[in-house]
């Protein structure tokens, strides 16, 4: 087995060396030759340090058989090369002392010992370790008078950091009556740190004396090797003295403020055993993981007694570890027959009403119980954890339960022994403080383990599963240091839950599987990957367009002893594919990477064509080289052709000099594109851009620049662009104009100088244009004592729609100051300023004057102001602005610490129009604040008052001027707040609490007051809607601004809602919404409809904007009149559920049961129903303007339909059921329908299946009646249904057919016949059974009246008014041979109707009952006034 060369082993090395000399003398005296001596010593060293896979090389042995022996150049190697070097070992000893049975070493000196790394792991099948003694038992006394290690060099791979140490010492080992005496001192050479040990032990008297001290600074070897959090300084002081039957020791250990120990241990004889008593105060909070650390905060006490019996047994009596919050007890025995019977228990310690409370931590219950029983070589372990109702700084949970069992079948480690492993865990009610982590974890975590431990230090897992809300991990197979062979699956059902961790909005689902085959102890790993993602969204617009919601993953990756391989790795979306094949090796690499973009339009709609990126990485792993090519072919950008374009790059030494050579070649918009760039990192970490030569069309950029480690640049860059439009295709935005620029950078005597000249005309870019630019700038020593000469002139510039006729900036440099002036002029706007830049310590900017004016308003500098720039930040003195009669002042300093004073007095808000003309505000601002301290520890008071605030929004809402007043004080990274907002009858709110000054700070605000629901009418009025009511608010917000936790409620009372356009009216509206954390609960919401029906709602909504406010809302309606307009009146029962992300893509499901639906076909169509083409609304105001704006927005949205998904849409999955009582009346139509409509699809694209079919119906044309043979009512969107009716009859010499189609508010009537006749002829035959040419004058008038009826010009609706006044569903008047007959019927339930018929004869009068058995099957019963009775069954089909 391989052995590390440690300091004790070095001492052992000396003994081996001496033993070799003794063996040499025994086998031939001291007269052996040097070669033989060298062989004996080499054999001894090899036995101590070598193995089958380790080689030892010895350079030279001097004086092997003398009293002064020296060995040089010892090298240890393994399969990975040299891992240890020792330059020199010297041993000075007294040979004659051997005659006195004493090994007497005067000095053992080791020169420089280098341990470069840890030795390579043993390969599988390596020879077992040699358990024989390294040093034979020597019957002599050993004395080491002086030991010295000059330098021990540890490589970074050994302990995680490179280190240099030295050591000295001495040792004496004698017979049992003398024992061992050891002194050892070590010190850190490259930084502070010492370690001292003084040890003696006499076996005869069992007396032990021990003194050890360690002192190392932060970042030392102990803190790094032990992995102590924060790598704190470490101090250790351990001492003890006395015989083992009465021994006492003391310990003091400190490693930072949260890790340490202080106490004593005593060992005393009691009969047939020694008893160890422990009394130790410890601080172990820093060693615990973050969730458990608060449980062990403060001091933790370790007390107990352990008995060590003379027969080898150990009895643990009352060993307890006690913290302020918890207690852990260990009880049990280790028996002489090598069996265990131990029990470990832990429990929380209540200290406040049955709960455990300390340092921001609360625990309702904590109970842990574990038993370890059976042979020491194979005990059975059973453990259980139960924790409830805990609140920790990291979060809280309601319950945690965990069980674990391990049952071995024999002695652990022996061939054939198996260990049955089972574990189950569940945590519920989780609410983590970290919002991103909380969303990923969710409120529940489960863990399941089923496996078998093997005799080769591996385990076979049938199930190893960890399930969180955002991630599910599942492993099946073998797992261990010797071998990993199995499959790991990861299921991410909702990537949106990982958005916070990823730092970007994610969406979709992902499934990933990895088939693993690894041998960890040999650093050999391999994985075959397979995965896919659906509905994927990454938050990056370009990437999302390329992936188009889909991603697949496949391929193999591997690692072997520092070499990495990739085979067939492929990551593909719908429109992009990335592949990788090859290897990265310590000696050589050959990795090929490729990205294919077959359609660049998918990345950016302004592009088209194909794009490819190919790269090849070569060279050893520590000095990689790369070649890459980016190419596009047959492409366009901004509709400009790019037949070919390529960028080729060759980069040497990626991790070092980054020596790069890049070339550009191709053609853009029929113009050549060429270029060369050469760049490399300098040995002093500076950069050298030795060549820059780019030419694209008429634009050329060339030059060369160097950058030193202090970021000082030297070189020259020139730009000559006759037409910047030649760059538009590459910039993907329209550019234009001519620009010539020259930049000269120099560093005389280490000073940075810049000279710039620029001339441009007709320059154009996104939202900005400049007719003429002329700039000359000379800046000297910009990082030291700057001096500025500049003349900048801009004529007629347009920025963000604002036209500026002239901008001038002039500066004249001088050693004492650079004086400058600034002016700008635009229509109605003028700006002037002057000042000077004063070099020195510190640099100062003195503003002498400033004046900005627009439309009679002005902002002026009241007095000169100074900005100073010391190393600590910026100092402001005398800054005062006069703003339209008001005044703003600011002075103080800002930097690592703040000391600022701000005041605003009587500042008119209307002055904001000077900077932003479209900002239409009025009111007056008064404010003051004093800010002191570091940005994270501020202090100082502030106050704010805004009087008579009026905005366009408050005006539209009809609110009076708003009054706002507030005050508070900064404290740390937060501020106290006490504010009021009063808007008369519209709103009155009070805000109190603490608000953070950052998005992650603690929030604690309470809001109370009232809000008039009518404030929403500004938005609702556009659609003819109106809301009334009062909302009482009593809310509180805790947590952080990005993750608020709400509590309280908002209550709506005396509310009403009307939609005049759709005929919706709700009254007696009441609602109560309660907040709890990030959940809003609709505890109750109800409203009444005009017919006495009711609508109610309940549910929950999560305040999570990134997830679209997920929740569930249930809506119920009882005989609610949903619509009541001149066209449609609907009464229905509702049972609807709305779930999912309510603000993005919710699902609407359930059913609507129609009680009655009446569609009235208007008898007249007003002439103004259709607007006259070409009419424009001039100077629209108020609601009219808002409606026109909404119409334009809707028209624009319709124009974009199909190109972009709406921000909000809902999935539809509900049924509208109406077995009957769907009536169509008006314009001669009297029909009843029934059926069901299944609504699917989305709001943007609904999919309807089914409709309302005809039950009965007729069409009245003057005195004629036609029964409908077909009838259907459908909804294509909106509340106005579509009609599709057909009535057919024999009239005179033709078969007449009447077709009614189109929307109910504008139906179309068509009259056709066989044989074909004009519509007026068909109508004439239908009414009078004769041609129109043979009609009487009276009949002609009736024909005209009927034509007007069906054309929408009006008709006689007396019959319909009579039916409504009687309150019946069906009214029928017939003229028979025996005289007139009047019939009326009304539904008394969903499918049962009762009718009465009265005629001039008894046989024409009676009572009838109709039952709709099915859609097409009807049962009818009738009793006549003459005593007759009849029962019949009717069936009807369309054909």
TrEMBL record:
<keyword id="KW-1133">Transmembrane helix</keyword>
<protein>
    <submittedName>
        <fullName>Translocation/assembly module TamB domain-containing protein</fullName>
    </submittedName>
</protein>
<keyword id="KW-0812">Transmembrane</keyword>
<dbReference type="Pfam" id="PF04357">
    <property type="entry name" value="TamB"/>
</dbReference>
<dbReference type="InterPro" id="IPR007452">
    <property type="entry name" value="TamB_C"/>
</dbReference>
<keyword id="KW-0732">Signal</keyword>
<feature type="domain" description="Translocation and assembly module TamB C-terminal">
    <location>
        <begin position="1085"/>
        <end position="1432"/>
    </location>
</feature>
<keyword id="KW-0472">Membrane</keyword>
<feature type="signal peptide">
    <location>
        <begin position="1"/>
        <end position="25"/>
    </location>
</feature>
